[in-house]
């Protein structure tokens, strides 16, 4: 390692780039050379070539004609109703079909499919035509699953409030045409096929399904409204009024689009004494492509109007859009993306044309299906421009960081010499963004939306930078790195414009008849407000209300939906099985637990608290030692031994791990494969690939680059542990960070930035990973959730491995890392310790943790991943199997930092050492020696406070727990 550091130092001395323009040229464009063109650019090119007009064409290729997979087809008896042989598409397999077309042109591709297996995570594939990806969007195609409520009769909880029903997948064959996964294009994707034979390949990225026929068709033509009316010359306008409650859809393509409870007399049904699920959608119905369908019955065929009682109170005040489908088809162009304007009050939106004249929709006698699909396509042009500008900002920022190194704010720069024309480049961005401001204003009408305001702020920042280009290196926080930078503002605007929330109460299928008012009258509302005011004093959902003596009181440090779900499954399962009553309450502030314990107002248990809280309570005698229970070993073996380390004092364990973080290595498969860069397994291998990454204007990320100047144990302890170091003396009487192994780990931490030029500050790894400037790095669970749920454009093109470590003499790799999560504990002041232990065992059991995790994601969405600390339960969670295996492998090296009364001082001083070495150029040994003096001084003060020392003399040792100690305890308890 030391010889490599010397080599890097020599390279840096001799390597001085002639100009940053070169770095911002070929190398900075490397990612563009790797990626395909976007669909919009390819489509424009094809249209210029006259390929967008083809004769009507339709061809269905049956599974029996798929190439090279005859032995893998399921017989028709196992096709689940398809009536023909089908292909079981899963496990990274692909299917290929050949199709012959008479005319070169653009065609749509569709699939008959039936989802299989776990349906919480979306089924994703990629399409190649004649062996290549035709455009970047073809790298991710979504195959939605259908869901419905398990029951339409909403059950109630102990207070009489309605509960969101469990969700049930609809097992029926569906047909879908390949669409862009972000749904920014209003029509299905078109693919260029040559005259004659073509091959179409569908690659499996995630999920599994049965595949029937593959359809290749010419693009569907959607009529305008007048043509639609003319196509039904004999249809008559009907006069009846049919009312439907929106909270009872027949199907939806996301399990977590859900009913909501509104305490508002304007909605129906309404009960002032109970919470009813009386509306549908809102924030849960905001993701592009989410589709909801209702079945309606009409007595006579003919033309009907459609009116939706809506509340569209999107915080930004911009309009949202829905695509209307009747019996799975868009009836006419004018309702392909229908606008629902902003309003903070309920209103009846009768679907009309621009002149306010109502549309009439043809419905067949009997059952018809009406569907609304969240549609961001009217905002697509703005989103495309923002995306382009953000990528350009990222490239410019990268070039400037290469130029200035660590010299920000320390010298004057002549930017024209290094990056010619930078001011004109920025002015070009502002010109583009101003055009989109005008477009958004035209969409939203009179009042400017938040997106328009934020765009104007971003434009103002960019114009000021363009006016003083020589100041850009000293004002990078205004361009890209700050929390209020132009790049950050544009990123937030992009997310806001993509979101399409809409809340519905009911809808009407009707003729030219009067409709009920959308809002309740003034006196009705006033009366209801007074009643609600007095009822609010009886609310019992916070940790401030009285609980019956025969009931376990549990404070939970989690959002309301978590607490309500936990209360429901406890009532239905635990209380019915044991007879023990439980009352969960929202915890206002976990830091008040110490005060509550001192005042003897503590609950029986606390769930979801930070893993440092049980220690603070236990060292003050306020927590129960769980080892006193006979079956502790059976419960404890469900967790990683290293997760217990911060929950231990002397020979007692004072909490159970509840959730668990993980630090794994994320990497972009497409980028790393295209550049032929191997995925590193050790830190030596990481430093070996850095020159190649940096040659292309890319880099490697570690959590040391997080924006905060304070480097917590979570990001520093892995290096100390992996190099064989430790933090404390075995008897707890001092720190060992000045020993050789620990010092080597801290020196390497600093070398990553000073010698190997890894980034010093990265505002958000997620964004850089998406845009490929940091295509590989180590990050925690939160990044995994973001990439899984909020980066659809690269879904399937990234993967994870255990994080790099230090190779040992025997060839093994030490990957020690913490995984701080939340914990659950019992208070010593509880008079029901045995009952509390029964509840804690039940809650942390494999069965309960799995049910809670699956239900949470099914009801609230993939982003509500439950990173349970129960290892057996984690193996059963709805995550890709290959990812679970990686996390479980990394958890074999889970090693939390033990707590001591002075651990905060050790944490702070390690951070100070890193900052001194990296920013001030101090010698690491000298910086550590200074820190040890401060740590030991604070150590003596804190150990005297808790009775371990007296006048500087050791009264009793403070034994530091180890993983081996925990493992011995579990075996001995057994």
UniProtKB/TrEMBL annotation:
State if Signal is listed as a keyword.
yes
Q: Which organism is it from?
A: Thalassobacillus devorans
SUPFAM superfamilies according to UniProt? Periplasmic binding protein-like II
Residues in the signal sequence:
1-23
Please verify whether the record's keywords include Cell membrane: no
Keywords for this entry?
Answer: Signal
Coiled-coil segments: none
Which residues does the annotated region (Disordered) include?
245-267
Name this protein carries in UniProt: ABC transporter substrate-binding protein
Q: Which Pfam families match?
A: SBP_bac_1
The superkingdom of the source organism is Bacteria
């Amino acid at each position: 390692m030391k010889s490599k550091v010397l080599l890097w130092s020599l390279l840096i001395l001799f390597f001085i780039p002639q100009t940053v323009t070169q770095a911002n040229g070929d190398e900075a464009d490397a990612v563009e050379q790797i990626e395909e063109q976007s669909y919009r650019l390819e489509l424009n090119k094809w249209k210029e070539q006259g390929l967008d007009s083809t004769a009507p064409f339709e061809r269905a290729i049956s599974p029996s004609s798929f190439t090279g997979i005859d032995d893998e087809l399921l017989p028709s008896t196992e096709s689940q109703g398809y009536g023909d042989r089908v292909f079981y598409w899963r496990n990274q397999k692909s299917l290929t079909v050949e199709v012959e077309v008479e005319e070169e042109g653009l065609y749509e591709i569709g699939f008959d499919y039936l989802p299989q297996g776990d349906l919480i995570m979306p089924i994703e594939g990629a399409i190649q035509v004649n062996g290549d990806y035709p455009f970047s969007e073809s790298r991710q195609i979504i195959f939605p699953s259908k869901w419905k409520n398990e029951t339409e009769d909403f059950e109630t909880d102990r207070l009489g409030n309605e509960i969101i029903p469990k969700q049930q997948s609809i097992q029926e064959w569906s047909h879908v045409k390949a669409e862009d996964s972000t749904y920014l294009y209003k029509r299905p994707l078109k693919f260029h096929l040559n005259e004659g034979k073509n091959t179409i390949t569908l690659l499996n990225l995630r999920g599994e399904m049965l595949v029937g026929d593959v359809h290749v068709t010419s693009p569907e033509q959607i009529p305008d409204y007048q043509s639609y009316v003319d196509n039904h010359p004999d249809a008559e306008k009907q006069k009846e009024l049919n009312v439907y409650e929106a909270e009872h859809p027949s199907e939806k393509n996301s399990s977590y689009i859900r009913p909501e409870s509104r305490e508002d007399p304007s909605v129906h049904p309404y009960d002032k004494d109970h919470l009813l699920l009386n509306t549908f959608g809102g924030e849960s119905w905001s993701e592009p492509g989410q589709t909801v369908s209702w079945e309606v019955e009409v007595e006579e065929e003919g033309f009907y109007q459609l009116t939706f009682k809506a509340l569209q109170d999107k915080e930004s005040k911009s309009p949202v859009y829905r695509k209307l489908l009747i019996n799975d088809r868009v009836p006419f162009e004018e309702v392909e993306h229908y606008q629902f304007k902003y309003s903070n009050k309920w209103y009846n939106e009768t679907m009309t044309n621009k002149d306010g004249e109502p549309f009439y929709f043809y419905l067949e006698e009997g059952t018809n299906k009406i569907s609304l699909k969240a549609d961001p396509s009217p905002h697509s042009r703005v989103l495309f421009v923002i995306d382009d500008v953000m990528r350009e900002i990222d490239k410019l920022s990268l070039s400037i960081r290469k130029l200035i190194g660590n010299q920000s704010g320390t010298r004057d720069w002549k930017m024209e010499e290094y990056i010619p024309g930078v001011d004109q480049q920025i002015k070009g961005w502002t010109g583009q963004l101003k055009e989109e401001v005008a477009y958004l204003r035209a969409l939203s009408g009179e009042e400017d939306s938040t997106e328009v305001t934020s765009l104007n702020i971003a434009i103002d920042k960019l114009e000021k930078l363009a006016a003083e280009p020589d100041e850009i290196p000293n004002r990078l926080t205004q361009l890209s790195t700050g929390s209020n930078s132009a790049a950050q503002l544009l990123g937030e605007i992009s997310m806001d414009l993509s979101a399409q929330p809409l809340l519905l109460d009911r809808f009407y299928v009707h003729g030219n008849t009067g409709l009920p008012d959308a809002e309740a009258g003034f006196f009705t509302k006033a009366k209801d407000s007074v009643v609600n005011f007095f009822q609010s004093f009886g609310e019992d959902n916070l940790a401030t209300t009285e609980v019956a003596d025969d009931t376990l009181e549990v404070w939970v440090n989690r959002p309301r939906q978590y607490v309500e779900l936990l209360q429901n499954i406890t009532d239905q399962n635990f209380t019915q099985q044991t007879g023990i009553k439980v009352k969960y309450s929202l915890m206002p502030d976990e830091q008040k637990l110490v005060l509550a314990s001192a005042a003897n107002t503590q609950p029986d248990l606390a769930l979801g608290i930070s893993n440092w809280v049980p220690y603070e309570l236990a060292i003050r005698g306020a927590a129960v030692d769980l080892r006193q229970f006979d079956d502790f070993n059976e419960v404890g073996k469900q967790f990683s031994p290293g997760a217990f380390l911060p929950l231990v004092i002397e020979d007692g364990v004072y909490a159970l791990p509840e959730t668990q973080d993980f630090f794994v290595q994320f990497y972009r498969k497409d980028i790393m494969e295209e550049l032929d860069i191997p995925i590193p397994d050790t830190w030596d291998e990481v430093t070996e690939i850095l020159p190649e990454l940096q040659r292309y204007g890319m880099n490697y990320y570690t959590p040391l680059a997080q924006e905060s100047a304070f480097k917590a144990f979570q990001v520093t302890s892995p290096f100390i542990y992996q190099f064989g170091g430790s933090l404390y003396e075995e008897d707890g009487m001092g720190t060992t960070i000045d020993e050789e192994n620990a010092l080597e780990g801290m020196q390497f931490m600093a070398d990553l930035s000073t010698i190997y030029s890894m980034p010093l500050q990265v505002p958000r790894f997620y964004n850089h990973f998406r845009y490929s400037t940091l295509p590989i790095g180590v990050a925690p669970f939160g990044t995994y959730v973001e990439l899984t749920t909020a980066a659809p454009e690269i879904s399937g093109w990234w993967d994870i491995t255990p994080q790099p470590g230090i190779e040992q003499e025997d060839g093994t790799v030490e990957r020690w890392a913490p995984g701080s999560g939340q914990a659950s504990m019992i208070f010593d002041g509880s008079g029901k310790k045995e009952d509390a232990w029964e509840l804690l065992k039940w809650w942390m059991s494999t069965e309960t943790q799995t049910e809670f995790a699956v239900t949470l994601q099914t009801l609230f969405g993939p982003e509500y991943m439950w990173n349970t600390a129960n290892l057996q339960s984690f193996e059963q969670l709805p995550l890709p199997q290959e990812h679970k295996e990686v996390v479980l492998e990394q958890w074999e090296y889970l090693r939390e930092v033990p707590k001591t009364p002075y651990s905060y001082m050790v944490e702070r001083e390690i951070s100070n050492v890193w900052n001194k070495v990296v920013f001030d150029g101090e010698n690491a040994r000298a910086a550590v020696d200074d820190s040890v003096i401060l740590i030991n001084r604070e150590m003596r003060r804190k150990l005297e406070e808790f009775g371990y020392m007296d006048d500087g003399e050791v009264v009793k040792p403070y034994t530091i727990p180890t993983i081996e100690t925990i493992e011995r305890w579990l075996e001995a308890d057994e």
